[in-house]
Amino acid sequence: MAAPKRLPVDPIAEAKRQWIAHGWEPAAAGMTAVTSVIRAQQLMFARIDATLKPFGLSFARYEMLRLLAFTRSGRMPMASAIARLQVHPTSVTNTVDRLARDGLVTREPHPIDGRAAMLVITPAGLDLVEDATVALNENVFEDVGLTDDDTAELVRIIARFRKDSGDFTDPRPQPDPL
């Protein structure tokens, strides 16, 4: 794929200039932050998508397989997967349906809750996610395009934003053993 032609001006900086010129200065910094994060996400997803394409995976499918592969037994309740992936249940169901159709996961009855399903990664799913992880590490995660210090600062800023937005809470300290 050919690299896109670089624009002669930063369109987000130009949008900020226009925001200010139109009298929306109090909102200009926020608009700039939001559109900058969205554009950065698009750039990162383009690299992720290009890396995962040879494996026949979307990032959603990869995340589900990776989540299951991280478990001790390669299985977890569907409700736990939904909570950990932080996406709408319908999206998780559609992702699982496609993975099951491709023989990468199976659904099994929950051992305690007859209404719930357990998701189980298959050996083929495990092999695929391991290979895809190697590719993502090499092509995306080991060099996201920022210095190590900038990467750490960005993660800290976004984590604080997520926490302040109610995305997660700090874990409570564990009591001392009796």
Automatic annotation (TrEMBL):
Key word Secreted present: no
Residue intervals passing through the bilayer: none
Span of domain HTH marR-type: 27-163
Pfam family, one: MarR_2
Domain of life: Bacteria
Keyword Cell cycle: no
SUPFAM superfamilies cross-referenced by the UniProt entry: Winged helix' DNA-binding domain (SSF46785)
Keywords on record: DNA-binding, Transcription, Transcription regulation
Alphabetized InterPro entries for the sequence: HTH_MarR-typ (IPR000835), MarR/SlyA-like (IPR039422), Tscrpt_reg_MarR-type_CS (IPR023187), WH-like_DNA-bd_sf (IPR036388), WH_DNA-bd_sf (IPR036390)
Protein's name in the database: MarR family transcriptional regulator
